[in-house]
Amino acid sequence: MEHLSYKEISHILGVPVTTVQMRLYRVHKKLRKLLKITEKGGIDHDMCEI
Asked: How many Å apart are CA 20 and CA 9, to the nearest integer?
């Protein structure tokens, strides 16, 4: 779903635009955390669910 607007994604998924925004925010936050852990050479077992 690269290069799609929030509105287009929400239409495809059948969810409100705010849901798309929140889901993307949460996944970006998890990814940032995972990348920081990886840079430090450690593993956060809570992140294994990703």
From this structure: 7
